[in-house]
Design brief:
Layout lengths: L1 H18 L2 E7 L21 H9 L1 E7 L5 H10 L3 H4 L15 H7 L3 E7 L11 E5 L9 E4 L17 E2 L4 H15 L6 E6 L32 H4 L17 H5 L14 H36 L6 E7 L4 E2 L5 E2 L5 H4 E7 L8 E3 L3 E2 L3 H8 L14 H4 L11 E5 L6 E5 L3 E6 L5 E5 L17 H17 L14
Parallel strand pairs: 1-7, 1-8, 2-12, 2-13, 3-4, 3-7
Antiparallel strand pairs: 2-11, 4-5, 5-6, 8-11, 9-10, 14-15, 15-16, 16-17
Helix pairs in contact: 6-9
Length: 488
Amino acid sequence: MRLMRLLILLMAIACTALARPNILFIMSDDHASEAIGAYGSWLKKYCTTPTIDRLAAEGMRFTNVCCNNSICSPSRASILTGQYSHKNGVPSLNGAINEDSPQVAAELQKVGYQTAVFGKWHLTSQPKGFDAYKVTRGQGSWFDPAFYTQTGQWYGKKRKRDLVPSEKHEGYCSDVYTDQALQWLKARDTKKPFCMMLHFKAPHHSYEYPERWKDYLKDTLIPEPPSLHEDAEKTSPLLKGVHTWHMVDKNGYFGRHESDEEPPMWPHDGSIRSKTSAAYQHMIHKYLRAVGAVDDNIKRVIDYLAKERIKDDTLIIYTSDQGYWLGQHGLYDKRLILEESLKMPLIVRYPKEIKAGSVNEALCSNVDFAPTLLDMAGVETPQAMQGFSLRSLLRGKKPANWRKGIWYAYWATGHYHWGVRTQKHKLIRFAGTSDYEFYDLKKDPFEMNNLAGHIGYKSVITETGQLLEKLIKQVDIKPDQMPGAKNK
């Protein structure tokens, strides 16, 4: 009798393990939604994303996923831990995740998942919960990337710069990352579910691409975004005006790339407007080529899953660590709470639960990713995770108590600010001043008109401010943890 009970228990456990989906989590760096064909921006005709677009057609595309701190290391930490920056210990670049923060890979590992991560890591804490990893230090190299692995030394935060990586491979980074990922997939234990993360460096500045993409749209003039020539210092002196990544100024894109030989800077007449347009053309051509090489490699992995007949048994996620300005507001880069920087692409395919071609407009955050992966795998979410599972949304059902606003805070480069984004409005506050910015996202989607102090919006501004104060309590951030608190 005892033997029979034991056999039944073992069979139940085995069935649960078999029911768990494989997980393929693909993340690029600085891939703006506007540069994905499925999102339908002014660039749709020129996008180089047929594979990503196909995932959207076969799954769900999210339109309001927001980063809670738009810069590489913090976003990656939030994705892995399900925690906001002030909780996981990574408010700025090159940080280390707190030892006591939960991590999604470790939780999956506990229930029998094989786990691996390949590509850009950009954290000083060692990958936790991964059976295998091959990751680059910091930004990593565009060509011939060097990897730190689970069998070698970890560079850490205090390691000397001359610490030798475990491996180095020839080729363009996106190609090499994918080579290593496929090698691991082919050698995996097919009796166990897997969670593999593939983190591309591209299309991060300086948008390098492989030889096969060098002639894409070579002599084609690509349309400009509506706000390319905005005078940001007038429309938003507190936010856009102080940002250092303008298309044209002494530290801007034009100055950094004016002497480039391949590709050369686009022709211009020397005026600020002409230089801005030239810088945009130079940037967007390189950017789309780098994106094309990402899509190439995603196709390689998807094709492998299809060949192995496990594509439909695999939860496939595509995202970016944050959004990116592609010339909007006369800017490039990210960091600020503005829409193009704040919003992340998120596409999820899993036909067993997700309706093909569906679109979701609910407010979501990158702290939701870890709880979602765990929920889909049938794993209980650790109490310390602050995000919410998106599983109900993926099934086409929005909970009645779903969040009303997204929390955002930014600690790096001196532009200390925080705020809240709702479905209709955005309120932004700054360290060291009572001044603020407020935008009506429905009437002003490009955020060109700061409505702070506008008498017609007095009650809405008050209401949104109350929501922001409520969020500050909900995310459990103390006054001395706020951006710029030590610099006031």
